[in-house]
Specification:
By secondary structure, this protein is of the alpha+beta class. It contains 2 helices and 8 strands.
């Protein structure tokens, strides 16, 4: 049977080896949130839709995108102090008809945009919410760059 002091010595040696290995590993910085404008935000849905995925892109007060069936266009006003308030106006789509599951995603997307009050970007995710519910989006995130020592 090993004595408690021998176990402590083995544990201390293992922790020291682990600490030394971690000290030599490059530190990885958490990347900043992706910009709200100029990023292609892909809608997160419960089931993957066939074909092109629904998305939104923002820039200079205009929003464009695709609902999974139709093109989406509109205008938005965002707060100037960074509190996350947003209001969409003149949201419209082209008039193509698609299968029911795709049309349901489009109807929900348009309803939330028309009732939205808040937007929040964290890393490579964005959430828009309002009285009609919420929409979650994701964008490809660049790989983190290791810090040089």
């Amino acid at each position: 049977m090993k004595t408690p002091s021998l176990l402590r010595a083995i544990l201390a040696a293992a922790l020291a080896a682990h600490a030394a290995a971690c000290a030599n590993a490059p530190a990885v910085r958490e990347p900043p949130p992706l910009p709200f404008t100029g990023t292609k935000w892909i809608l997160v849905t419960e089931r993957k839709l066939p074909g092109e995925q629904a998305y939104l892109e923002f820039g200079d007060g205009a929003v464009t995108g695709f609902s999974g069936c139709n093109r989406v266009m509109g205008r938005y006003v965002q707060d100037a102090i960074g509190a996350g308030a947003i209001i969409f106006s003149t949201i419209s789509t082209t008039k193509r008809m698609c299968e029911d599951p795709v049309m349901a995603v489009e109807e929900r997307m348009i309803a939330v945009l028309r009732s939205s009050t808040n937007v929040k970007v964290t890393g490579n995710t964005m959430r828009i919410d309002g009285s009609a519910g919420k929409l979650d989006f994701v964008a490809p995130m660049p790989e983190p760059v290791p810090e040089k020592k």
